[in-house]
Protein 1
Amino acid sequence: MSLAVLTTLAALVLAACSSSTASWTFEPAPPSTPVPSVSASVPAGGSAGASESASAPAASAGSESPAASGGQAGATLDLTAQNIQFDKAALDAPAGQAFALKFSNQDAGVPHDVVIKDASGADVFKGEIVTGPADTTYQVPALQAGTYTFYCSVHPNMTGTLTAK
């Protein structure tokens, strides 16, 4: 008896699929707003990554690519967080040029980030919080010549001085 049921079901499915009039169709609705396109170019002889340039604006100022901020990343600074403190109290960065900040959080299970503020106290860069142990490279937009303070927003006692010159 189960063979008869299966045969009947198969016949119904085949009949429905081969019907000359479709009882239903699926056509996805067109998007209500155009989807922006992003293109990236890689310099000749180079590779994508820190030198990648995008034609669309970055989603947030803290994650802006060097090319989008007006220049190539010419310098890379290193900073490590360990034992709830930074390994350096002072950093030097190129003025008027975007740079990379390689940040290593060595505190297991502890979140840290790097925020840079100007002399007026306004944040000019805010990196994503990372829980250690973890490494990340922040792309910092060009800073005008001057003295800045960097700190961890999770542990405000973790501070240092960044000089753009």
Protein 2
Amino acid sequence: MASGVFVKRAFVRLIGEENYVKSFGYISDLYQSVFLRIKEEGTSLVPNFIRQGDTVFDIGANVGRFTSFAAKLVGKNGRVYSFEPQSYPRKVLSQMKSIRGFFQVTVVDTALSDQVGKAAITIPLKDGWKPKSACGHLDGTGEGAFRTETVDLTTLDLFCESHAVERLDFIKCDVEGAELKLFSSGLRALKRFSPVLYTEVDKLCLDRRGISLRAIFDFMEGIGYKAYLPDETKRLYYVSPDNITREKTEYFFIPKVRAARINPGIFRDGEMRHLKD
């Protein structure tokens, strides 16, 4: 065992697991939220879809690394709504907002789903004690150690209507397999605003819900969205429901009406035409 791991485990035993999460775990997560860049493959392309003054929804914000990224892109005249129902990562997210002075960010303590009410979110525990908040989900109990937390639910449509949202340009979505529930209950908002979606699609999370990988792409195509991924040169190519190339990654789902606003140079030759089909 590496000496660093041994020292860490000894320290955890000394102060207790809960105290470690509240102190050193919190400091580590806050550091990542404030200082570390997000590493998803498509992140470098996100600035092509977000402008100063835009409104962005960060659904499944966790500790706020994408929120921090988006807040700089929309600027002081834009808005970022950061949805994080879990209390621990929301505390980190809120502290990051304060440290960075992001007055354009609104932290929302509600999960977006297909219903209004309350539900238990399942939070897996690494090594049996350390919460993996980024993997929290509403699918009920899972394998291995976990804890639960009761959270509030609403829908994308109802949130936009009850909060008088007047524009919505971009959605980043990381909801551990709940994409169909979320977007099928947000059709009014998607139709009205036609935001670009930057959405994690994970076959294992979908399998847990009994949803096929293709179902996501068929649904998106049915409401006028085309799926795109970046190639090795960071240019986007179209992914049809018949040719899904990756089972776990972040896809851009782009509606036709946004084509005129997007720099065509970010697409591989000929691939932008699919938006017009």
Protein 3
Amino acid sequence: MNVFLDSCVLHKDYFFEGIEHKSSQRILDYNRKGIIKIYMSDIVRLELRTQFEKELQDRNLSISKINKNAERLKIRIQFPIVDIEKQLKVFDAFYKDLQYEKHFFLLPTKNDFLPDIVDMAINKRKPFTENKSELKDALIWKTYSSYVEENKLSDCVFLTNNTSDFCGKDKSKVHHDLLKDTERFRVVNSTFDFIKQFGPELETPERKITAFIDITKIDNMFVLNRIEDFFLAEIKSKIERKIERMEPSNVFNDIRMGGFVSGDYSEIIDCNDVEVEIIGSIASVYSILFVAYDCEVYEYNAARDSGEDHFNYIGDASLVFAMTISFDIDSEGVSSNLEILDLDLHEVC
């Protein structure tokens, strides 16, 4: 789902903290989990920054009044004035960091929009009206409508409560004047309404696992790390049982007598052919591991004299096993259900 933000839905909620009912916080959480993509016009960001600065100025004015009254009443306490420049740096850093999120996009305003905006203003097409001129709303709309059309996006939501400028009588649809630009948007009027309307759909296990796989780089390194964290003991045990059944001739071709092989885990050398398959609410990861074991080979001593060992040490080698595996991942990233689908001696070094 593609969600396009208007500044009014984040009024006094500049950092997606959802102080009143947590809905904006949940929207940002969906975004960070890859369940939705969020788009913000640079005009929206600048408008939020201006609102933030004005609110800080108003707070300082209130604090100054409190301090003045405290001084008059001989109350020996002074509340500190807010450092506005410092707080604006906090705001700028927050939105700069958001741009590094994989599914958050800050969209620039293009100069190419000017001719059409002039035409909208002259002909009083939405969001312009006879009584007011809403340049910023027109820029926001042109930025968003142009983007969805250029990128052929589907499942688009315009999150705004400015229904007087963007909507007609039906507040869930854009005004007919704007449909010539795009028909791809549904309109939702608040973050609360968004969660109420789409939350159950977005939080299904199938949607969550798809989003998790989309934002997670499942490659050789991912598999190796999961093996080390979750499954190394099982893999060691499986190979050790195979080594227990091996004969010396499996390691050295010129040995004809029986005996045994004793091995110790060395390392996982490589991992390749990683594939991912989503089945319902679970993703199954398939891969081939190459695991090295250092071993010692002993041959049965059939001609031993009394008191001699039953087995003679023949030599040592490094055995590399090829192991086809699969394991599951849930939407929280927890790995389980290791299956060893095939295990063969790949190489003797």
Protein 4
Amino acid sequence: MTDLLRLLTLQDANTRLVLLGAGVLGLACGVIGAIAVLRRRALAGDAVAHAALPGVCFAFLIVGERNLAALLLGALVMGAVSVWFISLIKSTTRIKEDAATALAIGGFFGLGVVLLGIIQSRPDVGSRAGLQSFIFGKAAGMVQADVTLITLGAAIVLVLALALHKEFKALCFDASFASGQGWPVKRLDLALMALVCICTVIGLPAVGVVMVVALLVIPAVAARFWSDRYGHVLLIAGVIGAVAGLLGTALSAILPSPGSSLGSARGWPTGPLIVIVASAA
């Protein structure tokens, strides 16, 4: 009860940071994930997320240190490369989009695991690189810089989603109509994938490569059960994502760690609990 009271009153500075970061991330991922799901681009977000790992590793090898801005820039670049790769395969071969996406997911993630092994085997770096946290995330270890980055990225995503509201709506439900109106459908598709890339990258410090795609897809799928109106689905998905971020973080802070007695040290992983809460919706 003492831990619950401290959580509810936000007495701990680190808890406030993690709650803010997870809530804002869930809100942004819920909204843009809903648009991606309605546009049938959910698996593309999975490809972007898995391509982030080799991007992080390449950036580390170039910079030579764990500079968060550089690592996330590398993840963003490789995410964009994965989108280009899927588009190239789909447009130049007879392979369908789902198969091309699966190829990108496996290939890029495999490359990332190999690069991670190379970095870990270097005697001058070893485990000090700490890049494993980008696979499953480490929300409890977020600092002010991480939360600032998440908040800034989420604000950009939400503002652009609001500014392109009617264009994205037409793109999701009647792309031919959008094209007939003279709107650049391909550019709008690229803009949507760019927003997915941003959400994926800012989510890496919190929930990692594996879990961030769940935060993009699950709130959107849950919201679709509750409404068949575009605006309502976006709103509900954003609320579910934000609540999942807040509640999952709260549970990880107050639940006893696995195998410990009540009152022992806390230790439940934050990212997976956020995803479980979203799935419960």
